[in-house]
Known about the structure:
mainly alpha, two-stranded antiparallel sheet, 4% strand, elongated
Amino acid sequence: MVESIRALRVARTGAVKARTAAASSLKATVTTAPAPLRERLETLSSPQRIEVCATMRADPIRLDNPLQGTKAALRSLSPRIAALDAEVAELDAALSRLVPKAAPRTMAQCGIGVDHAGQLLVTAGQNIERLHSEAAFARLCGAAPVPASSGRTDRHRLSRG
């Protein structure tokens, strides 16, 4: 089950990154769009902007016109964002079913949600007995302090291993 959670989290992370990239491209395209189109879209919220861009119609004969080319680009980006939103929601639903089955006691803790519990399961793996203490978990995560003192200076750094 933990391996399934790991695979779903990898897919979700990729979808979130792709959605962020598509949303950034849409925003950059709006920012550099011809003035009439830019003024119409800048005042809209992000979800409204995506909806409006999905309904745009570019004239395929006049794509050499910057306004028509920009409309075509925006219309191409908006369904991609919507599809990635749906993909993230689908993966979240799958994780919401699996993670509570794999770690019911962890999920019962205050402040622990599906994302945190899933990450803990993936980090610890199925060999939970190797985490015999908080220090062992910190070492596994790369957050264990390592002495890096010199002379009278007393300091620590994080383990790079």
